[in-house]
Amino acid sequence: MYTFPEKFRPQRRTSLATLLTSAVCTERQAENIAVPLRIDQEAMKSPTEGNLDDCLLNKVDLRRQWISQMVEEVQKVVHHLTTEISHQDIRFQAIPCSDTYNENIKVLAPTHFLVTVPLRGLAGYREARQKRWRYYTLQGGRLPCPLRDPEALQQWLEVEQFLKNLWQWHEADVNIEGDIVPARVLQVFRKLVENAIETCHLPGNEVSMLMDRPGVWVAVETFAGPVELELIPSVEIPTSWSKKARWPPCLRRWPSAERVQCIKSFGFSLLACSNYHWQLSFLRAEQVLLEQLDEDGGCRRKCFQALRQMKEDVWCPGKRPVITSHHLQMVLFWTCEKYPHPKDWRIFSKAFLRLVRKLHKCVSQHFLKHYFVRKSNLLRYANSGELDAMAQKLAFFLKNPEITLS
């Protein structure tokens, strides 16, 4: 049985329908809204009109404000830290504050944020023309044999792949035999972050490095408690589309050809989050695709928000959950492609359960392809036990999609 955190806990029993609807509605929508009563996997009942539960609506509004305020606090801290880092090393770019959406901060879970720190001085990207194996120690010694070929979402990166580059990218602190090595970039970046934390004066926020995990992690104390930030240096490539992203496939109806060209125009990024290979990222393209979901009047975004609410509160809670909001976006995109017609997204109850079934299938099989790079598996290295536990919760929900809150 699911229980709300104490400060958000309603004092009476509430059906799943009220929970799901309240998770995605605003106060303006709360006066008169279609609420699905009981959702059955085989035969679904039509939604009926009803009033939204004030307690749950208040809980959702408080939660939205809570996360919004945390993001506001976090981006101020990130701005101060990256500004100091940029002063110390010109290769790392400062992240500005934004009053709206900050494209460099991604909320993967309520207390787990991904922060991409753009790298400066690498422009005019082109795909590498030759293949060669190269693995090095951090000291620069070449390993005698290759460890493994880069996976679908990974690639090498040579400084000569950029027509314009700062001379600092040829320095030995990040470059080995012409390759920009992620492990060395992270080594330099980690030291810069440590120095910035010591030198920056951040009133009201306690900031500390987390040393017990790979990569660069920072804990920030906010008004609602600690938030963990995963800081990843990022090479922004807005001028081209990765050859590994063979998207869209033939014979697909969603999204439209015009939308595809728009999405591709945002390019991709390469993230320094492993020792040897740069990881492909399409966060900008994914955000554009997510923002323009319901121009036909459908309920795709509403279903996604409900799915995320249930995932965070019931199926997979925690500080660093095995399934994040990024995984849920992939589930949504795959389902939208399979069901491209507007009529498939008219009835919230049917559309929502369709997403839950897709999520259950992916979690059960430990297999979820990236929407743009279809040879990948985003769950390849995920904890099997946590995936199996979540699959059981999803199976129970699909068997009886009604939850009682106490």
UniProtKB/TrEMBL annotation:
Source organism per UniProt: Sus scrofa
Pfam name, any one: Mab-21_C
Protein name: Mab-21 like 3
Gene3D superfamilies tied to this protein: 1.10.1410.40, 3.30.460.90
Record's signal peptide: none
Membrane-crossing residue ranges in chain numbering: none
Assigned protein family: Belongs to the mab-21 family.
The encoding gene: MAB21L3
